[in-house]
């Protein structure tokens, strides 16, 4: 049974770059994710996209929606659905704090990055965020351009 071995990367860190452009982060939390076996295998192979993902409360549970985890290549008929809702594992204290803030006007919960911790568990960093206005986005881009220009001048 000579099959080819899959290249599994040890350092998994998937970032949501769009979120930092669209939102101003107020506070960050690290949460566990309830996954199936084939989902964790796809995450270890870095076949994940947080591009359109967002979090919401269903009942008293925090759910991440629209996070795309590609089906595992060798999964067979027991493979997972790519854009299924996945439960986030936070303490009750953190959940109530987030729920209160989200019910206030203008706050949302956005996944910022997905990573594998030292023990091999998938963790997702979520941020309590407020949407940026157009002028805030322009100021951020201007500051980035200025810092890029300054680094070119030094060398």
The proportion of strand residues reads: 25-35%
Strand tally, please?
9
Counting DSSP H or I runs of 4 or more residues, the number of helices is 4
Radius of gyration from CA coordinates = 18 Å
- The CATH class designation is Mainly Beta
Q: Specify the CATH homologous superfamily.
A: Small protein B
Look at the structure and give the mean pLDDT.
Answer: 86
Query: What is the multimeric organization of the chains shown?
Result: single chain
Do you know the CATH architecture?
Beta Barrel
Anisotropy-based shape: globular
Total separate domains = 1
Please estimate the helix content. 25-40%
Strand order in the sheet with the most strands = 1-8-9-2-7-5-4
Distance between the termini: 54 Å
Order of helix and strand elements from N to C terminus: EHEHEEEEEHEEH
Briefly note the CATH topology name: Small Protein B, Chain: A
Low-confidence stretches: 5-9
Largest sheet data: 7 strands, antiparallel
**Structural class of the helix and strand makeup?**
alpha+beta
């Amino acid at each position: 049974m000579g099959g080819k071995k899959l290249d599994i990367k040890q350092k998994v860190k998937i970032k949501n770059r769009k979120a930092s452009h669209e939102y101003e982060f107020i506070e960050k939390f690290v949460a566990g994710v309830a996954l199936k076996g084939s989902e964790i295998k796809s995450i270890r192979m870095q076949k994940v996209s947080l591009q359109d993902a967002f979090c919401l409360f269903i009942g008293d549970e925090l759910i991440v929606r629209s996070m795309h985890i590609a089906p595992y290549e060798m999964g067979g008929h027991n493979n997972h659905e790519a854009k299924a809702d996945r439960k986030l594992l936070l303490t009750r204290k953190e959940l109530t704090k987030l729920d209160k803030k989200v019910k206030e006007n203008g706050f949302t919960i956005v996944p910022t990055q997905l990573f594998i911790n030292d023990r091999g568990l998938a963790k997702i960093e979520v941020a309590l965020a407020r949407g940026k206005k157009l002028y805030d986005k322009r100021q951020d881009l201007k500051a980035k351009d200025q810092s890029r220009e300054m680094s070119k001048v030094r060398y």
